[in-house]
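User: I'm new to structure prediction. If I give you an amino acid sequence, what do you actually give back? Let's try with this one:
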Amino acid sequence: MSGVAVPGPAGGRMLREMFRIRTDPLHFLLDMAADYGDLVAFPVPRHAALLVNHPDGVRRVLQSNHHGYDRDTMQYRTLSYVTGGGLLTADGERWLRHRRLMQPAFHRKAVERIVDHTARAVQRRVVAWEGAPSGTVVDVDEAMMHTALEVVGGALFSTDLSGEADRLVRAVLVALDEVIRRARNPLIPPPRVPTLGNRRLSRAVSTLDESVTRMLGERVELVRGVPIEEQPHDLLGMLLAAHDDEASFTARELRDEIVTLIVAGHETVASALTWTWYLLGSAPAVEERLHAELDAVLAGRLPTMADLDSLPFTRAVLDEALRLYPPAWLISRRATEDDVLLGHSVAAGSLVFLSPWVLHRHPDVWERPEVFDPDRFLADGRGEAVERFAYVPFGAGPNLCIGRDFALLEAALVIAAVGSRYRFAPLRGHRVDAEPLVTIRPKGGLPMRLHPR
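Assistant: Good question. You get back a string of structure tokens that encode the predicted 3D arrangement of the chain. For your 453 residues, that looks like this:
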């Protein structure tokens, strides 16, 4: 255990950096890791605040000593204004109980149901684009948000959300914007105070609650008098039927888990897909290889589950997009007990930050880390041996995102289905900035030119 102080910026530099911390935290954190190393201490009042940027430290916090860290941080407290106590923000026994009850809905057999729902959502998107002249400008970010939301509604809840996709997407974005404002400014009054921002948050959450109420009401009517074996076998049915030795889900717990899955289940996938199209549009040689693989395997038809093993480059493109633009760009934890990280003592109460955005660009881990190179994820050829805790787009350890396999399957299917029919070209002169909200989104959307293939 080192007695040497953890390196980090002095108070003067932190004061000079305050504007950049608020407006460009991604590159601020990159610079901190480059200047001070794999463990960086920030001079903040009361408890220590540390950036951990090494696979060994990530493994310690998220897996080997995960019991020594909880989610009692500003990041998760503000998010809970929207998602309540769902899996994304829960801790301890509540988290463990809900995870165990929900896990069967994400087993492989259950996840495979996503194929048909993805095909239907993509088909709606293709119909919307049919007849558009080549070169028509479309907002790829908006299109992927709608597509991912429709897949979540169908696959997890057997509910057609296409008719209310606009309203729900807007509600989610407004709610998450308010979450970010609160996380960046702890002086904002609590939600009960009727400020303009709090009223926006309240309306957005009400929209989500109304959707959940409608969904539950429709399910009750749908299954009334229907034998259980003939009822929909989806996550919603599992939540309604879930029980253990303690109790069934309460009405509030149901609401929290459904809202969590609506929010997280489409926001993360949409982010991954949006950045995939952006990166492909900026790398013609990679795009050509993707199209060649899709044409050889699919020959213009929609992909099936059986096709995915024959699309290794498609999956590598997705993996590399998740490396460069991990949806969850920041993971925060609070130390509940004294610990040692990377040879340094960490006191109970310390805040610990892990940034997949920074970790995925570590120059000692990744060759040419800023380059979009899907080959690094291919099993053959010159693929790099990726250290498990150096690549964490969905977190790691027991709190690994429950929907990871769902998201990866959905995203790969959308890339294959859309990529076999269209390509997206960047707008000349249009600057695309990564905006670190709850997920990383292109600031102002992602306008690109749509070209049928």
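You can read the tokens as a compact description of the fold. Here is one thing that stands out. The chain has a mean pLDDT of 91.
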